[in-house]
Design goal:
The protein is of the alpha+beta class. It has one helix and four strands, in the order E-E-E-E-H. Strands 1-2-3-4 form a four-stranded antiparallel sheet.
């Protein structure tokens, strides 16, 4: 399996933390030297291991923001 290269460009926030110390975070991440995308996933405390996540372009994160702003929470 090919190695995935990543660089966390900016840590934007922690959404939650599990009992094992893994944190669900939103970050700006560059994957395989491509332009960075907004990324939500779980990370181990050292940011070496990660869970499955989802990435968003700037346009997608703006749409997500608008959808969330419409919710009656």
């Amino acid at each position: 399996m090919a190695e995935i290269k990543y660089e966390i460009i900016e840590s934007l926030g922690v959404l939650s933390e599990s009992a094992k110390g893994w944190t669900k975070e939103i970050n700006l991440v560059s994957w395989n030297n491509y332009p960075p995308k907004y990324d939500i996933r779980e990370w181990d405390p050292e940011h070496i291991k990660m869970g499955k996540g989802v990435t968003f372009t700037v346009e997608e994160i703006k749409i997500l923001r608008d959808i969330l702003n419409e919710l009656d929470l």
